[in-house]
Amino acid sequence: MKELFSKKWILATILVVVGVGVLVRLGLWQLDRLNERRAYNMMVAERWQQEPFDLNVNPFPEALEDLEFRRVQVAGTFDFERQVALRNRPFNESIGFILMTPLLLSDGHAVLVARGWVPQANETPASWRQFDEADDRPIVGLIQASAPHNATTVAGQSEPQALWFNADIQAIEQQLPYTLEPGFILQLPEEGRTWDQYPIREEPLRLDEGSHLSYSVQWFMFALILGFGYIQYVGYMNKRSARIAAIERGEIDPEAKAAPVDGNDYPSTEAPAAR
Q1: How far, in Å, are 3, 20, 26, 80, 267 from residue 6 at the CA level?
Q2: Counting runs of H as helices and runs of E as strands, what totals does the chain give?
Q3: 151 pLDDT band (50/70/90 cuts)?
Q4: Whole-angstrom Cα distance, residue 26 to residue 223?
Q5: Are 268 and 261 in contact (CB under 8 A)?
Q6: CA separation for the pair 24, 12 (Å, rounded)
Q7: From the centroid of its chain, how far is CA 273?
């Protein structure tokens, strides 16, 4: 081990020690990320398992993040005549629309409900009516924030705008005869609903731990390989240098086959036995 800190190897040893330290730190960082991910998953799971927040009993929250990852429910009447759609939405390598239908509430307000995905062929409001659904039970979903629309607003247009890039609630509200709540509801699939029933609804939460553990193991393995490999390399190079020096001094025959030393296939520095 003292050879590692000799004048010849000290600089390389310092660099390797620093490299091993960096690799170990990266492994520990991935373990920290894993713990953060587990804590996040636990928080999401706890909120998800709570009873749905009833928007017919409680006012719509001013801070939408207060209900992040918590299910909400609301009952009302769908206004299919004034629904809109979000365009260019992918699903299973296909492009289509997300239907956004106003749900009229008892207080005269309405909330937009993202009811699910329909294929690209259904691009006119008239074709959306085949996907009308009964509103005889509360809608259960997740509250989502409004998103700015990347086009001109609808103010001054003679006809309502049916296709939107984003759910810009303030802009959509301008073409409706009632006030919209500041967030929309991403409707979740009902119990017993088949996955391919239009509009197709998905549960957006898939909790997993990611690849942090495997990445951590990789960084620790890299640290082990670097440190152990460097020690083996220094040992080999020192024995090689000793053999070359012995050959130059004429102490051993350069044509002689090197014998293993201490069970390792390093060149021998001993002279061959006299014949």
Answers
A1: 5, 19, 29, 82, 21
A2: 4, 9
A3: low
A4: 10
A5: yes
A6: 18
A7: 67
Distances (CA, A) of 169 to 45, 58, 263: 29, 21, 76
Please report, for residues 24, 80, 169, the alpha-carbon distance to residue 86 in angstroms, rounded to integers and kept in the order given: 47, 15, 12
Q: Mean of the pLDDT values across residues 30-35?
A: 93
Partner residues linked to 197 by β-bridges: none
pTM of the model: 0.67
> What is the SS3 assignment for 117-136?
EEECCCCCHHHHHHHCCCCC
Q: Give the C-alpha separation, 113 to 140, whole Å.
A: 10
Helix spans in the chain (H): 10-49, 125-128, 169-173, 212-248
Domain-by-domain residue ranges, the chain? 1-49+212-275, 52-187
pLDDT digits (tens, 9 = 90+) for 172-191: 999 999 999 888 999 998 88
Question: In angstroms, what CA-CA distances link 10 with 208, 231, 273?
Answer: 45, 12, 37
